[in-house]
Specification:
Elements lengths: L13 H15 L5 E9 L2 H8 L1 H18 L5 E6 L2 E8 L2 H14 L4 E3 L2 E3 L3 E7 L8 H16 L4 E3 L2 H22 L4 E9 L5 E12 L3 E3 L1 H10 L3 H16 L6 E6 L1 H5 L3 H11 L7 E6 L8 H12 L3 E7 L6 H6 L4 E4 L1 H4 L6 H16 L3 E4 L5 H10 L3 E2 L10 H10 L22 H10 L1
Parallel strand pairs: 6-7, 9-11, 11-12, 12-13, 13-14, 14-15, 15-16
Antiparallel strand pairs: 1-3, 1-6, 2-3, 4-5, 8-9, 8-16, 9-10
Bound molecules: ligand C2E and calcium ion (2 copies).
The site of ligand C2E has 23 residues, from β9, α7 and β13.
Amino acid sequence: HLANHDALTGLPNRRHLEHELFTRAGRTENTTVRLACAVIDLDRFKDINDTLGHAAGDALIQAVAERLVANLRADDFVARLGGDEFAILRECRDLFDADNLSSGIAAAFAEPFPVLGHQLEASASVGVSVSGLDRAIEELMREADIALYEAKAKQKGSTVRFAPTMASKIEQRRTLEVDLKVAIANRALTMAYQPIVDAKSGTISSVEALVRWNCTKHGSVPPDVFVAIAEETGMMADLGRFVIEQSIEDSKRWPHISTAVNISPAQLRSASIVQDLMGPARRHNVSPVNITLEITESVLLSNDQRTLRTLNILKENGFSLALDDFGTGYSSLAYVRDFPFDKLKIDRSFVTGQQDKGRSLDIVKAVVNFGLILGREVVAEGIETKQEMQAMQAAGVTHLQGYLFSKPISAAHLEALIATSGRLTAASAETATDDADSSTVDLSLAAKLRRIA
Ligand code: C2E
Ligand code: CA
Ligand code: CA
């Protein structure tokens, strides 16, 4: 009996639940009764454990277990799956029974939980699946898990009912993962380059290297989607090495213009990052002075000494450093001052539709001044309209980047562009067609993939 129960709460455990699922499936076979399975996962449980300690975490789990039992029906089967996960089985006699299950769970979390003298507000995300004639009972828990995954992605504290399209989305994400691995191994990715211009003269002062994956099966997959997949699945080191190698090699086509390479947080944490950059630079005989590393602001959040040390070593080797997506990571201004960045790239969200947002223009001005006082260059990215360009010029930014000047283009195209003019005005952007960029992406596909990832 003990082996079937969870020691902390006394509730049935996962094994018991799986057994019960089959018992009830057999009992309700050839009846109109359907089985509903709900999987419940507490939100921010780790924070509670970390801030109040494990005793508080345990007490909360016990309190939640009691509440669930109290708020559900006597014949509901309430189990603890482990950690902060619970599951409930209910026999539904009509359509309302499944909905009542969700509201019963919600009621359990409506009041704060008394935990070691604290009153703790807790919420949970819930995935629900209801059996049907067309589906195998073994699938019920897996489906509830998939629905839970969707609930967490949607909004913490929400309840999501399983739909068959969700399974195909997860399937699609898995396929994407497998195909990406093959693409990286076969070097089937390409690089596109987007000019960054001097805000006063319009001359191209640098270019940003952006990776592209044009796949016969998936079309062109947005880089923020597949970079995130690579980060989560341990493929970033390989993807990063491809990006570094290819952009350093291509940078020789425009030796007087510096090339900016994006370095993801996982790459920066890797012990081999200095070698991964210095190796290709030596091999292609490119001076690190011509390479800028773009590092997203969120890496500063943890303010760990190792990151600072790595950045200093890269700087000592001659690389320039740019703080990317500046303004989105909530990093303290003191960090920005103390870290050795040469450039700040103001995030596109501060640039878009600036003319309608008097107040955020004031913020942009303050940020620009902050950067200038520290002696940094300040780049505004994502400039699409003349108004945005003028607003950023008025705010005092030193460099501009965006579709208004040029989309990301192939190395060959960029080389030709630099050879003919080297100067980009808003007007010349019309002729700079995009032969390498994701603008050919079906936008609805892009949005869909982003949601999956
Ligand atoms: P990011 O580093 O902020 O790159 C700028 C993004 O803004 C690029 O999107 C670029 O195409 C887009 N962009 C430039 N001008 C405009 C504009 O005027 N309007 C709009 N709407 N967008 C503009 P992209 O290429 O889709 O890349 C998205 C993100 O994926 C990048 O954001 C970066 O975080 C990541 N990424 C791209 N390539 C690489 C790479 O080689 N390595 C790593 N680690 N990350 C990369
Ligand atoms: Ca960037
Ligand atoms: Ca950026």
